[in-house]
């Protein structure tokens, strides 16, 4: 089965053709980074306009690289939630129109399910899909979710952020110190030559009922407004040191909660997904802090960020169950699906 995936929830216009929910025949990602860089953040209106401009050539490129005609596609899957509504509408409407014209099934996809599916795809000829249930770790620009993934769309949320997401903390710190965009990528790079002991920022104490929850607004505030209070006076201030110290704390906050969730659930596999899953320190610290017999699965770097292959992969799974979406399915900026309960999405 060939599924054409479309992704336009933020600042990447992407289309992909995926065979049987696994084999990526094409995964075209047109990044808008140069257009948002000058503003140090995503400008929603610019994003929507670029999606409109690029969606047709990106889809054409995806079918060309895959070596298939549109007629050969069995279904079309598009992200419809969560994200920037203007951007979502472009891929969603395009997908619906294509499905209608081609008389093929249409499937609306939750972007976060896509991120959790990233490592289930074959990459460079290798495919080792994690077996459900596993501990799912979703870390992106808008979400920080620790969950039990019982299936590709059955997610029991154990913990989430009570305020900002981890990605937002990276982005806001980078924006404040004018380090560059996207913030997480730049901080990750600068931190490699920095000293993580240069500052010891406080970590949140969330108390009862928040065993697996995280918080990032306090860290963000202390790094931005109270840096001098926590700086180690024996170490000189520079942006590399600042990034290393901030990143160490941001990642530690998360890894401590992932370790606690692993211990509580006894699950032996952890699967990460989302843009922040590309973070070098997150990858190394998880390995350092979890027991040796725990398998930690990260998507390949190219599949951590937004891409349509992950959307096509989830689409295939729904298709196999005969579950499709009506053509009046709306685009949604936010979802209530990732609450503290078992959810079928
Ligand atoms: O999944 P994603 O591409 O888009 C959303 O669904 O939000 O994630 C984007 C987020 C941004 O906050 C970006 O700064 C962060 O992922 N990011 C990183 C790294 N690469 C991207 N954060 C930390 N380290 C990285 N290497
Ligand atoms: Zn994403």
Tell me, rounded to a whole number, the average pLDDT: 96
**Contiguous helical run count:** 11
Sheet with most strands: 6 strands, mixed
The whole-angstrom Rg is 20 Å
Strands, count: 11
Low-confidence stretches: none
Helical content band: 25-40%
Approximate shape: globular
Distance between the termini: 22 Å
Helix/strand structural class = alpha/beta
- Biggest sheet, strands in spatial order? 10-9-6-7-8-11
**H/E series, N to C?**
EEEHHEHEHEEEHHHHHEHEHE
Ligands, deduplicated:
5'-O-[(R)-(carboxyoxy)(hydroxy)phosphoryl]adenosine, zinc ion
Description:
- By secondary structure, this protein is α/β, with parallel strands linked by helices.
- The protein is built from eleven helices and eleven strands.
- The strands form two sheets. Strands 10-9-6-7-8-11 form a six-stranded mixed beta sheet. The protein has a five-stranded mixed beta sheet with strand order 3-2-1-4-5, sandwiched between helices.
- Strand 4, helix 3 (85-102) and strand 5 form a beta-alpha-beta unit.
- Helix 5 crosses helix 6 (183-191).
- The two termini are 22 Å apart.
- The model has no long low-confidence stretch (mean pLDDT 96).
- It binds 5'-O-[(R)-(carboxyoxy)(hydroxy)phosphoryl]adenosine and zinc ion.
- 5'-O-[(R)-(carboxyoxy)(hydroxy)phosphoryl]adenosine (KG4) binds at residues 10, 115, 140-142, 167, 170-171, 182-185, 188, 274-276, 278-279, 305-306.
- The site of zinc ion has 6 residues, from helix 4.
């Amino acid at each position: 089965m060939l599924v054409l995936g479309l992704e336009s929830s933020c600042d990447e216009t992407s289309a992909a053709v995926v065979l049987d929910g696994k084999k990526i025949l094409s995964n075209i990602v047109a990044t808008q980074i140069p257009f948002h860089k000058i503003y140090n953040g995503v400008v929603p209106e610019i994003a929507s306009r670029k999606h409109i401009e690029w969606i047709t050539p990106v889809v054409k490129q995806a079918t060309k690289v895959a070596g298939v005609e549109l007629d050969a596609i069995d279904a079309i899957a598009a992200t419809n939630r969560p994200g920037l509504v203007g951007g979502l509408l472009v891929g969603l409407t395009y997908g619906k129109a294509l499905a209608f014209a081609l008389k093929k099934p249409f499937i609306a996809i939750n972007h976060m399910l896509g991120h959790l599916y990233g490592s289930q795809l074959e990459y460079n000829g290798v495919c080792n899909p994690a077996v459900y249930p596993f501990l799912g770790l979703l870390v992106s620009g808008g979400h920080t979710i620790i969950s039990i993934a019982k299936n590709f769309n059955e997610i029991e949320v154990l913990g989430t952020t009570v305020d900002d997401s981890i990605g937002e903390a990276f982005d806001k710190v980078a924006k404040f110190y004018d380090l560059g965009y996207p913030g997480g990528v730049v901080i990750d790079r600068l931190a490699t030559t920095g000293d993580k002991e240069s500052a010891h920022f406080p970590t949140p104490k969330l108390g009862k009922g928040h065993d697996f929850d995280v918080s990032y607004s306090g860290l963000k505030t202390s790094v931005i407004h109270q840096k001098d209070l926590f700086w180690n006076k024996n170490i000189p201030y520079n942006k590399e040191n600042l990034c290393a110290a901030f990143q160490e704390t941001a990642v530690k906050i998360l890894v401590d909660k992932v370790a606690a969730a692993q211990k509580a659930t006894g699950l032996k596999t952890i699967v990460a997904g989302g843009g922040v899953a590309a973070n070098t320190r997150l990858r190394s610290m998880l390995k350092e802090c979890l027991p040796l017999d725990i398998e930690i699965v990260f998507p390949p770097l190219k599949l951590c960020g937004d891409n349509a292959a992950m959307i096509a992969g989830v689409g295939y799974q729904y298709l196999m169950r005969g579950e499709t979406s009506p053509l009046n399915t709306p685009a949604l900026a936010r979802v209530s699906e990732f609450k503290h309960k078992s959810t079928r999405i």
